[in-house]
Design brief:
Distance between the termini: 79 Å
Shape: globular
Helix content: 10-25%
Structural class: alpha+beta
Largest sheet: 8 strands, antiparallel, barrel
Strand order of the largest sheet: 1-2-3-4-5-6-7-8
Strand content: 25-35%
Number of helices: 5
Radius of gyration: 24 Å
Length: 190
């Protein structure tokens, strides 16, 4: 290597050590990216979270009632009534809110993007209560799409509901819908 300039030595050193990282047991950036791509997404994107109401005059009135609630100091019945008819969407749950806090509980198991603003959601379904974690027969697949600020929800569990287009009213108030206070779904307690 007589007469070789420092740049040549550096190039030779880089070429000689290129495969060394893999032998150390530490993943390189390509391996880290591949692992991220192979993980199953289990949470809904933040752009979908919030309280969504049917895109009609009744939904607009319910949204106004929800926005006036200041949280825990409000009566439980008033808070529940303001949410009736809404979709409460958190990263791990879609709650189709019915009277007394009941309704359909879609506990998110997997989220697959299907394009720029559409997602396929695999969920466990509970009717009027959270689903049993051990049950395998209560699985549903739905699609959420967001276009021009309107949420469209297609789900086989929604039979009979005329409205499938919603507008985002506000964020979820954790003291009104406590199932969102941590990253896990918990049973609603009054």
């Amino acid at each position: 290597m007589k007469g070789c300039k420092p740049a040549c030595l550096l190039l030779a050193l880089v070429a000689a050590t290129t495969g060394c990282r893999a032998s150390t047991g530490e993943p390189d950036s390509n391996q880290v990216a591949a692992r991220k791509d192979s993980t199953v997404p289990t949470r809904l994107p933040d752009v979908l979270t919030g309280v969504w109401y049917p895109d009609d005059t009744e939904g607009a009135a319910s949204c106004r009632r929800y926005r006036t609630l200041s949280g825990a100091k409000e009566g439980h019945d008033e808070a529940v009534m303001a949410l009736v008819g809404s979709l409460v969407v958190t990263p791990h749950l879609i709650h189709v809110f019915a009277e007394y806090g009941e309704g359909d509980f879609h506990v998110v198991e997997r989220v697959d993007p299907e394009g720029g603003s559409t997602w396929r959601v695999d969920a466990r379904l509970g009717i009027d209560a959270l689903p049993d974690e051990r049950a395998s027969e209560d699985r549903v697949v739905s699609r959420l799409s967001l276009r021009d600020g309107k949420l469209r929800w297609e789900s086989p569990a929604r039979a009979g509901n005329a409205s499938s287009t919603y507008f985002r009213c506000d964020s979820v108030k954790p003291d009104i819908h406590p199932a969102t206070t941590d990253e896990k779904t918990t049973e609603y307690r009054s």
